[in-house]
Structures are given as structure tokens and as C-alpha cells.
Design a protein that fits this description.
This protein is mainly alpha-helical. The chain has one domain (10-477): Growth Hormone, Chain: A (Up-down Bundle). Helices cover 77% and strands 1% of the residues. The chain has 18 helices and 2 strands. The longest helix has 31 residues, at 265-295. It is globular, with a radius of gyration of 23 Å. InterPro entries: MFS, MFS_dom, MFS_trans_sf. This is Major facilitator superfamily (MFS) profile domain-containing protein.
């Protein structure tokens, strides 16, 4: 009788049953999951806070550097976002190659260093360079946070986790100018950077204590390596191992976000829509202090407070999203089970989410622009910013959770592609903000932006209905 030859490899996966293996991040306790996601949310709050906090203090910085350049006035705010757009091209692939946590720790430290350097920049050029590098390093938790959520949370529960994580990323730009305007006016703009650096340092220390690795290919790779050491048998291999050399794997990982953005129509279209809305928001952020300072004679600290209504609208949108997103997908999943079908990523884009978001964003722009143009009481344009904030968060979170569900294995790269495009537009579009208002006025200038958002409003509605067909176009190129 012929003996059975020994296996060429021992495939290492989660212990059976997978739903009970404590090493599987999906099986971690709710406390551990929430601790990881809340830390990422706090970091995600501080990064955009740094991006926008200097908006009310731009004039003080210009006076210190003895410049009257309008380009410096807007670019000093938006250059951070340009770095923010570049970072995911590196950080997202690295997280899929070496794990989430090493990238988080390294970039948190770099973010702290470059933010401190902004406070001591000797001139305009150095200041802009450090702002760019600060944004480049700070992009990691925003680009990779969605990947961590995909590692930790099953599809039917992701809505509330993404909403919680998104609180920081959306509130940061709203609250930053409030803090920045007050500190800059009372203690000077350099202390503004020092104060936020203390907060970054504290969260960085906390992240070393709390964050745990969540990326399954890395965790199973470590498990296989441990078994090889313990048994002395080199045949143990992770079931998620690619079988590709490190150099080739890095090359594929590094180009994946760009490939997804350029070759996958679903990613391209959705990211373009988000980029237009994001760029419009940053144009508003970069010009609020000029608008309310010119029209309503607000001081720098008072100008920082005008970001509050937008933050309130955003929080209301998050509450709305958390209530309807997971509930809708749970109903769809139950219906799919009853009919022997499968829930789809398109279930993340129901009309109850996409329609209010797509319409509220331009409606808020119309209200904001024409109330300023007609010199209506300042409370009315602020109401417009709240409506815009409400609409923006429904669109952003809805599309982000859709990308996570649609490209689950490469969620970090998909969201990284989204961050790259929206960050690029968010950096460049504000440069034309003051010129746009000078040429068209507050009313028609904002109406132009609103018409553009309105023209793109059908995008999330169409994906909610026909997204599966669109995803098939170029989908095979994602993993290359």
C-alpha cells in the first residue's frame, strides 16, 4: 500500500469555528473594538482640526511674515490638504503590506514633529513646507481608518462605527477655527500650533497603549511565523499569503490606489463626486473669515465661531446616518436571506440617505450665498452652512461605507484613492475662492458651486440602483 506523501504546505487560518477564534478581530469584545475606533476618531479629529484652525489667524501670520499675497492667504490653509491628498498613496498600501498599527504609530510621531515645526518656521517657504509635510503625515489615520473598521466590524454593523469614526474627521474642520481664532488672538499664532501639538502628543502616547493590529493577512502571517518557530517546520503558510515577493507586493500595493482611481469607474465616479463637495467645503472654510469679516465685521475669534453651525448640521447628519444606514442594510439583509439572495454594497445607498444628502448640500449653498449677498442677518447664512454640513456628511459617510463594502479586501486603498482626489481638489479649489467671489459676488459665486453640486446629485442615487453593473467595469483590475 502506497504511503500518502506529506503535504507541501500547512495552510494557517483562524481556528475553527472562525466566529469564536479570539485572535480574529471580528470576535474581539465591543469594548476593544470601540477603544480602537475611538482612538482613530480622536486622531482623525485632530488632523483636520490642524488643517483649518489657522483660517481665522491667516492675517496675523501674513503680518508676521510681512506679506500681502492673496495666494499665500489661501494656500497656507489648503497646502495642508495637498499633503493630505498625497499621503494615502504611501500610507494605504503600507498598511496593507505591513499592517495598520506600525503606520499609525510612525505617522502620528511625524505629524507631531511637523506641526511643531510650523510654530517655528523662519519664513513663508518653510512654513508652507512644514504645513504640507504635516498634512502628508496626518493623512494616515483618515486613509486607513476605514480599513481598520472593515477588519473589525461585519457589514451589517459598519454604519454606526463609520459614523462614530467620521465624527472626528468632520468636526475637526469645524472646531479648528474656533480654537485657532481664540488662541491666535489671545496668545499669538505660534502658540496655536504649540497648544494643538500637546494634544497630538497625548493622543500619540495613548495610541501606543490602546491600538492593536487588525489586518487579517498580517495577523495570520504572524500566526504562521509563530508556528514555524515553535515546530521548526517551514511549511506553515497563511491562507491569506499572496505568494508574491516583498518587492513585487510593495510595487502592487503602492500603485493600487492610483490604479483603482484611474481604472475602476465606480471608484472614479464616486471619488470625483466626493472631491467636488469636499473642495467646495474647503473653499468655504478658507473664505469664511473674509466673508464674515468683510460683510459682518466679525473679529478673528468671532469669525472662528461661524464654523459651529456647520458642525451642528454635521452632527445631526451623523445621527441621521447612524439611525438609517445600519437599520436599512439589516432589513435588506433579512429580506435577502428570506429570498435566498445576498445583500449588496448598494444597500448602503438607499434613497432615505442619498436623496436628502444630495439635495441638502446645494440648498445650503444657495441659502448661504444669497443671504450674504443681500446682507441678511448673519444667522441666516449660518443656517445655510448647517444645511450644507448636514448634506455633506450623508454623502461622505454613505459613499465611504459603500467603498468599504464594495472593495472589502482593499478597503484602505479604495478610501485612499478617495482621499487623494478629494484632498487634491480640496487644496486647489480654495485658491480660486476669493477671485470667484470678487468676480461674481457672494450670491452668484456660491450659486455656481451649488449648480455644480446639483448637477452631480444623481450620482449616489444611480449607484444605489445600478452600482453592481458599474462595479463590474474594470473590477478585475483592482487586485493587480
Amino acid at each position: 500500500m502506497t504511503a500518502t506523501p506529506p503535504p507541501l504546505e500547512f495552510i494557517v487560518g483562524w481556528d475553527e469555528p472562525e466566529t469564536e477564534d479570539p485572535e480574529n478581530p471580528m470576535n474581539w469584545s465591543a469594548l476593544v473594538k470601540w477603544a480602537n475606533i475611538l482612538i482613530l476618531s480622536v486622531i482623525g479629529f485632530l488632523v483636520p482640526l490642524v488643517s483649518s484652525m489657522m483660517a481665522p489667524a491667516v492675517q496675523l501670520i501674513m503680518d508676521d511674515y510681512q506679506t500681502t499675497s492673496t495666494a499665500f492667504a489661501t494656500f497656507s490653509v489648503s497646502v495642508f490638504v495637498l499633503g493630505f491628498a498625497s499621503g494615502p498613496l504611501l500610507w494605504a498600501p503600507l498598511s496593507e503590506l505591513y499592517g495598520r498599527v506600525p503606520v499609525y504609530h510612525a505617522t502620528n510621531l511625524l505629524f507631531l514633529v511637523f506641526t511643531l515645526c510650523c510654530a517655528h518656521a523662519p519664513g513663508q517657504g518653510a512654513f508652507l513646507a512644514f504645513r504640507f509635510l504635516s498634512g502628508f503625515a496626518g493623512a494616515a489615520p483618515i486613509a486607513n481608518g476605514s480599513g481598520s473598521i472593515a477588519d473589525l466590524v461585519p457589514k451589517e454593523q459598519r454604519g454606526k462605527f463609520v459614523s462614530a469614526w467620521s465624527v472626528g474627521t468632520i468636526l475637526g474642520p469645524m472646531i479648528g477655527p474656533i480654537i485657532g481664532g481664540f488662541v491666535a488672538e489671545t496668545a499669538g499664532w505660534r502658540w496655536m500650533f504649540w497648544s494643538i501639538s500637546i494634544a497630538i502628543g497625548a493622543v500619540t502616547i495613548l495610541s501606543f497603549c490602546v491600538l492593536r493590529e487588525t489586518y487579517p493577512p498580517v495577523l495570520l502571517g504572524r500566526k504562521a511565523a509563530r508556528l514555524r518557530r515553535e515546530t521548526g517546520d517551514d511549511r506553515y503558510r497563511s491562507k491569506l499569503a499572496s505568494g508574491i515577493g516583498s518587492a513585487e507586493l510593495f510595487r502592487r500595493s503602492i500603485v493600487r490606489p492610483s490604479r483603482m482611481l484611474l481604472c475602476c469607474p465606480a471608484v472614479t465616479i464616486l471619488c470625483a463626486y466626493v472631491a467636488v463637495l469636499y473642495g467646495t467645503l474647503y473653499l468655504l472654510f478658507a473664505t469664511y473669515s473674509f466673508v464674515f469679516g468683510t460683510v459682518y465685521a466679525f473679529s478673528p475669534s468671532a469669525a472662528g465661531l461661524v464654523f459651529l453651525p456647520g458642525g451642528a448640521g454635521t452632527l445631526l447628519g451623523l445621527a441621521y446616518m447612524a439611525r438609517f444606514s445600519d437599520r436599512t442594510i439589516a432589513k435588506r439583509a433579512a429580506a435577502a436571506t428570506a429570498t435566498a439572495t445576498m445583500a449588496t454594497p448598494e444597500d448602503r445607498l438607499p434613497l432615505v440617505v442619498t436623496l436628502p444628502g444630495a439635495l441638502a448640500f446645494p440648498a445650503g449653498l444657495f441659502l448661504y450665498g444669497w443671504s450674504v449677498e443681500c446682507r441678511v442677518h448673519w444667522a441666516v447664512p449660518l443656517l445655510g452652512t448647517a444645511v450644507t454640513g448636514f448634506g455633506s456628511i450623508l454623502v461622505f459617510v454613505g459613499i465611504q461605507t459603500y467603498l468599504i463594502d464594495a472593495f472589502e479586501k482593499y478597503a484602505a486603498s479604495a478610501v485612499g484613492a478617495n482621499t487623494v482626489l478629494r484632498g487634491t481638489v480640496g487644496a486647489l479649489l480654495p485658491l480660486s475662492g476669493l477671485d470667484l467671489y470678487h468676480a461674481l459676488g457672494w450670491g452668484w459665486g456660491n450659486s455656481l458651486l451649488a449648480f455644480l453640486a446639483l448637477a452631480l446629485a444623481p450620482v449616489p442615487l444611480l449607484f444605489g440602483r445600478y452600482g453592481a453593473r458599474i462595479r463590474k467595469l474594470g473590477g478585475s483590475r483592482v487586485s493587480l
